[in-house]
Amino acid sequence: MNRVSERRRIRCKVNGHDIDREVPVTQLLVDFIREDLNLTGTKRSCDVQVCGVCTVLVDGRPVSACTYLAFEADGAEIQTIEGLASGSELHPIQQAFLDENATQCGYCTPGMILATKSLLEDDAQPNRERIRDYLKGNLCRCTGYQPILSAVVLASERIRHD
Ligand code: FES
Ligand code: FES
Fold it and tell me: Are 60 and 107 within one domain?
């Protein structure tokens, strides 16, 4: 079979919902999420794992969906930015980004927030150096790094004192 037309079955959870689809073996996770599932909060830009705007969580770990094949997520739990809020209540990280004015154009924000979620699950009280280091794969073209840093600190405080 021509590899381009080969398909594989993928069963996974996306934002808590069961998904069972057949996908081309060459399909990227970012395209599966954006085009098949219509979850367009996940952005794409460089396509070469440099900018981080396509970051989603696969089993809680941040991955660049632009360099990850969709079928590799078979059996995994995927979280996108659409899965963070509870109804109309924003996740504390989203709220902290709003409160610290850490979004300008917003293009980097979904990936930045998901990477932050992974960081705070790993380290509930990261210092600024750790935050900078952890988020170094997430670029902000608007260069709003100081407010982003403040938002992560604020989110970690709020989550710890919740
Ligand atoms: S679009 Fe995936 S890292 Fe830039
Ligand atoms: S807010 Fe514009 S790229 Fe980060």
Answer: no
